[in-house]
Amino acid sequence: MTRLLPGLQSPADVRALPEAELPRLCEELREEIISICGRVGGHLGASLGAVELVVALHRVFHSPQDALVFDVGHQAYAHKLLSGRRERMETLRQAGGIAPFLDPRESPHDALAAGHACTAVSAALGMLEGRRLLGRKGRVVAVVGDGALTGGLTFEGLNNAGGLPLPLVVVLNDNQMSISANVGAIPALLRTREARSFFEGLGFTYLGPVDGHELGALADTLREARASLRPVVVHALTQKGRGFPPAEADTQTRGHAMGPYEWRDGKLVRSRGGQRTFSEAFATALEEVMARDSRVVAVSPAMLEGSALVGLKARYPERVHDVGIAEQHAVTFCAGLAAMGARPVCAIYSTFLQRAFDQVIHDVCLPGLPVVFAVDRAGLVGADGATHQGTYDISSLRALPGLALMAPVVGEDMAPMLASALAATGPTVIRFPRGTLSPVPPELDPGVAPIQGARWLLRAEAPRLTLVTLGPLGLAALAAAKAEHGWSVLDARCVSPLDAPALLEAAACGHVVVVEEGTTRGGLGSAVLELYAAHGCSARVRLMGMPDTFVPHGDARVQRAQLGLDSEGMRRAGRELLGAGR
């Protein structure tokens, strides 16, 4: 039997298919998604659960004239396959390939770039009002996962939309999962008769619940929504990971991000590196502290798996809190805990901490509360790309009064840093990358005591140049300095407060290269230059870091080399600086 997918180049082709062919199309889409993720990895579970939903949307609405606004593109692989990208899907999440989430620059069928949750309703409402204002035709649909109903931005959009006479269509893809199971009152309410009253109370017409895997019922309900002249919610019940037994059996995440993998002798075999990660090293240090101090509490905004806190949650169920996709709430919840004498540790990705910047300033730093932020995925994140790069945490946080910001070089630095953070009377940030741990070089002594300022990884007898680094880049700097004559390496360890004596000593040789995995605008390098300017220091300084542009998806190791953030790049930069000083 001839496959359907190769002949479908656009959503118009989907609308032209006989209705009897649609179940087969859904089977092929699932097969394709499973195959692609098996080869290159990706967000499998959410996309498998939304296959029928995507097909029905493209049958009823006419993209791109009708805008389909997905709340986070990890549920939209079927959409990508049906909108002219099938032949390139094997490049998913790879450098120069198909984007990990949605991107209008990639396809006119991607109405809005989306990598963070809770944005769809607000963006779709703005698009609808913009079309009304400019006299443009077409409908706008917000496709929202039920996990987004734990976030405040979604409710801000629903509140605004419910009070306006605009025909916004909100499709609620209800699978009771974010990455893991949803938490709180709203997910429970959605599976009761009160769901209708809830949305109608907000001013929406409520249609559903409808089986999100039954194409006929879905299409009929979406047609009714399309004909509405007022805001409407279509409540579709779906199953994350549907059609792939290993994902369906994965009770923790339903195959959220499985792969690469392959079938061998009827069994699923997944690729595993086996090395411990920085996240796991931090979780281990945190577990040891929690065993000694009952005041220590961990808080995560729906990222227990990514932050390696699942085991800790099992051991301390009442002291490890998953608050849902609600970063602002997570931070202020920690502020409340700290105000009562607890010692909260907020485990949060760098890219997600951006969403709670106001709360960090006003609710934590202004009152000087001792909240510890474990900022994961700081720096380059690889395949997740521009929306998830940990680029801006240093530049945005270092200016906040009373906040200490530090970074480990190796996993063994975690325990001393956490001890320092928990002993502090004010807020502290420990930033660390996505990646596996490297062995501890003999030049580095992590120690066990709380940290005190910067440390020298290598001090040349007759110094000509100092590499000042932050975090794991210190290891690459060490390799670079060993290959050169008269080069020293200073691990800054703390961006705020700076270790002024050590940094001034680093400048005494006359040449300093500052290397960080964050933006150079306002980062560690800027802080060093400010220090040198204040002390009248005349050393020649070069800053190295992430560029003044959004870094796309790709292999993080390759990107570090391209940006000069590896040992060869540091050697090259140092030689150029020394040569320019002659």
Write the topology of this structure:
Layout lengths: L10 H6 L5 H19 L3 H6 L1 H10 L6 E4 L6 H5 L38 H15 L5 E6 L6 H11 L6 E6 L10 H6 L3 H8 L3 E7 L3 H12 L5 E6 L7 H5 L11 E4 L2 E4 L7 H15 L3 E5 L9 H6 L4 E3 L4 H13 L3 E7 H4 L3 H9 L6 E5 L16 H5 L6 E3 L7 H10 L4 E4 L23 E4 L6 E5 L3 H10 L4 E5 L2 E3 L3 H8 L3 E9 L4 H11 L5 E7 L9 H7 L4 H14 L2
Parallel strand pairs: 1-2, 2-3, 3-5, 4-5, 8-9, 8-10, 10-11, 11-13, 12-13, 15-16, 15-18, 18-19
Antiparallel strand pairs: 6-7, 12-17, 14-16
Helix pairs in contact: 4-10, 6-7, 12-18, 14-16, 19-23
What are the salient characteristics of this protein?
582 residues; alpha/beta; Rossmann fold; five-stranded parallel β-sheet; 19 strands; globular
